Amino acid sequence: MAKQAQFYILEKTTPKYGLSATESLACDLAAAAWRLGKRVLISCETEQQALNIDEALWQREPEEFVPHNLSGEVTRYAAPIEICWANKRNAQRRDLLINLQTQVPDFAGGFNQAVDFVPNDETLKIQARERYKQYRQQGWQLSTEQA
Question: How many CB atoms lie within 10 A of CB 102?
């Protein structure tokens, strides 16, 4: 099965819960994937970003709640959505990588499906193009969608 990476091109996405538009969309995509039965890893650039996303997921309306935890949190059962950051990740197998890092994480090859973003900011667009090239060089099938 070919590895697939979906890039979302952000133009008019409205941020929620004090997050950036990219982070808000990442939360919504993680929730949608969980509802389809997928186990999700949201890979953040920093611990602070991970904490912000964790907090935003707790602030969702009760009917929008998704079970999640931060990497390293001791829980009885592995949550279906894990939020990690550079150099901090649990070892559970996940179906979908949602990448918020400026680079393609070293562990991306362990996934068959990834989501990445092309933000509106020019500097961030350049970084996204580099990630797109990296995925392509690693043999991923790539697609884009307007968000």
Answer: 13
Domain 4-146, second-level architecture: 3-Layer(aba) Sandwich (3.40)
The rounded distance, in Å, linking the Cα atoms of 45 and 124 is 13
CB count within 10 Å of CB 73 equals: 12
pTM over 0.90: yes
Other CB atoms within 10 A of residue 15 CB: 13
pLDDT at 23 over 90: yes
**Domain ranges across the chain:** 4-146
Distance CA 60, CA 10 (A): 22
Burial of 97 (0-12, 13-18, 19+ CB in 10 A): buried
